[in-house]
Amino acid sequence: MAYSDKVVDHFNNPRNMGSFKKDEEGVGTGMVGAPECGDVMKLQIKVQNDTIVDAKFKTFGCGSAIASSSLATEWLKGKTIEEAQKIKNTDIVQELNLPPVKIHCSVLAEDAIKAALTDYQKKTDAQSTDTK
Amino acid sequence: MKLPIFLDNHSTTPMDPRVLEAMLPYFVEKFGNAASRNHAFGWAAEEAVEHARKQIAKLINADGKEIVFTSGATESDNLALKGALEMYKEKGTHIITSSTEHRAVLDTAKSLEAKGLATVTYLPVDKYGMVNPQDVQNAITDKTILISVMLANNEIGTINPIQEIGKIAKAKGVLFHCDATQGVGKIPVDVQAMGIDLMSFTSHKIYGPKGVGALYVRKRNPRVRIAAQMDGGGHERGMRSGTLPVPLIVGFGKACELCEQEMATDAVRLSKMRDRLQTDIMAALEESYLNGHPTNRLPGNLNISFAYVEGESLLMGMKDIALSSGSACTSATLEPSYVLRALGVGTELAHSSIRFGLGRFNTDEEIDYTIKKVIEIVTKLREMSPLYEMAKEGVDLKSVQWAAH
Fold first, then answer.
1. Which of B310, B346, B403 is the closest to A61 by Cβ?
2. CATH class (in words) of the domain with range A5-123
3. Which of B376, B332, B386, B396 is nearest to A66 (CA)?
4. Reported pTM
């Protein structure tokens, strides 16, 4: 099976690979997948004034899974929370030209985005209750 | 050194130039049909086939008449199991095999089961992938007509105690089929000493051409019979009809002759390179685990799992080295290697496995390059792995509640 040039590029030059401290202010962390299934994605966002100013990922998985999460971090940067909610796995499939057997990688990336956003919301909600 | 490097010699092997040379006259000049009994074209072809039969038989200590040509090991496995069952079904319909056999044996057995033609016992293997002869003995019933156990495994290279299984089969009067596809030409095979009645093997795994294989069918003590699975001209003593592919057979014969002459020196050289590959990689990379038997394995085989990295991404990171992985992402079934699972290797480590297959034409320089590349890519991908990060932080990955998908 041949990989698309974009998948190869993200795999060879991953964007925003790394981690934020989970308890850092404004950081939301999403971890999805399972080692037994052969892929685990960790996606993190850093939010300031409702805008995602930075994003990072770490992924255990095939080349397409790594590329999907790398692309997701690229797309997240600069988006508002609301805009980020709208990223769909089909957008990732299209951009990376993923074959049918690799669609689950894009689904996982969308799940990771949603999980990171949810985690961020939970953290900020908890903080605002604290201050009240 | 030329890139890419071929380190996938269990899947197939490049043809030895000496084999090609032997084959060439049989395409255009000596093109006859070996079954044509009435003219010189046929006689020349027949002579070439009979010579190849002897070369092949010699490698496994058999008689040329006991070699039945097929299209390859998959057909040989099918013919052995289906043909023996059809021939001996009055005696019984129970077959014993092992859980790490090649799909050509396992799927044939499953198909016979599904059609209600046979009952099959799938023996477990130990943590090294070996069948216990005692398990074979215990599984035999008065309905057992066939035991089918592979000589060496295609993924992990583990060599089974064939001679002991052969003895048990003989003592119980049960036929013994051995899928020796990975072993013939790599390690000594003697159908007499090993007590083998039927044996599958193929040309393209031993530097011969693709498209030809053989089924060894014992002629005496006992005389084994199998029912043909294809109707036609009654070639190969009625067991496998179809015009013989003379050039391929000539190549197969030459390949066997070369193996007979060079197997011992090849094995020493390959084991040495393989051991170096193993030692250097495993010394540099923590949490890398050898799959299969530490010593009792094929000379050119090495199978390692690298914890926290996924197999397909490893292959992708080593584009200029041809390797294979037990990861689900590289299989048609989307399940990780059933062979590794049968040894008790966890699913996550099965996803992380890489198979190195060394062959006659690999060089020390290629091994040096591979060692360097593997260490580089595993290190890089671990940096990228959330699992590695968690493990380094002291998180027990088994205690994590994963959101399975």
1. B310
2. alpha beta
3. B386
4. 0.95
